[in-house]
Amino acid sequence: MIHIQNLSYLRNDDVILDQVNLEIKQGEQWIILGRNGAGKTSLINMIYGYSWPTSGIIKVFGIEYGSEPLRQIQEEIGILQSNQQSNLLQRNLTSLEIIISGLHSNLGIYREITEIEISSAKQLLEEHSLLHLSERNFQILSSGEKSKILLLRSIIRKPKILILDEPTSSLDLKACYEFFNLLQSIIEKYKITCVQIVHRLEDIPKYFTHIAMMKQGRIVQSGLIDSILNLKNLSSLYELPEDWFQSFQMFNSWKH
Q1: Structure letter (DSSP) for residue 68
Q2: For residue 195, which of 48, 57, 75, 96 has the smallest C-alpha distance?
């Protein structure tokens, strides 16, 4: 699904990504874990085509970026960047309209909505028990409700790949629990391959299969979560003593 080879990215002579290699297969669910500034968002921005690398190769669905128009690839990728999208989306839209805007990758509604679009969005809301939010103004929703609506917006076109950039960073525990339950049902229903950025261990859903640890623009460890998520690797990644993670409840729950 995603092939990244020797990917590097320089911004004003600063190295943001440094010789990144990553292979993601269909049906895998990947976590990209790292501290702030590790290069995680830059990496997923390049996977989606928001920005372009200084050197290296990106292939999605076997198509090398630069060989064909990106639009046809982007139509098969859903992306959720909660903080950015919440701030940039057109004001005074209902939850239903926010979801419909995802059909055309717009940040608002700029033409008359069709009955087919309304029906598609309502069906999606109903399938996930969120129809009661359809006519409510998006801006007055709780943070947890907004995250769910933005998630539905990202999958309205039934993408093959879903990219999530720290989707629960501003949510409380209950909202996180509900979001990850919704995400799991979506992944299972649509057989989506998912890539999620996190910088906190508690934001790693248990049903994810793989992990890539990023540090200073490089992937330092990658593979199955059960093999990679251990005290030694976490200590090196965060530059913290191992005993700090031993007392961390989320890590212990992962290992059991």
Answers
A1: B
A2: 48
All residues at 6 or more sequence positions from 102 whose CB lies less than 8 Å from its CB, including other chains: 78, 152, 153, 154, 156, 157
DSSP designation for 94:
B
Q: Return the amino acid letter for 240.
A: L
Q: How confident is the model at residue 251 (pLDDT cuts 50, 70, 90)?
A: low
Domain 26-51+69-76+160-256: top CATH class: alpha beta
Question: Alpha-carbon distance 184 to 138, whole Å?
Answer: 23
pTM of the model: 0.90
The residues, ordered by sequence, that sit 6+ positions from 136 with a Cβ below 8 Å of its Cβ are 94, 95
Two tokens, residue 232? 């030694």
* Sheet of strand 2-11: strand arrangement: 14-24, 2-11, 55-60, 63-64
Tokens 């989606």 appear where? 48
The residue that leads in pLDDT, 65 or 86, is: 65
69 band by pLDDT with thresholds 50, 70 and 90: confident
Amino acid at 167: P
Paired residues of 14 in beta bridges: 11
Contact 2, 60 (CB under 8 A): yes
What CA–CA distance (Å, rounded) separates 38 from 17? 8
Domain residue spans in the chain? 26-51+69-76+160-256, 85-158
pLDDT in the model for residue 255: 46
> How many Å apart are CA 142 and CA 14, to the nearest integer?
38
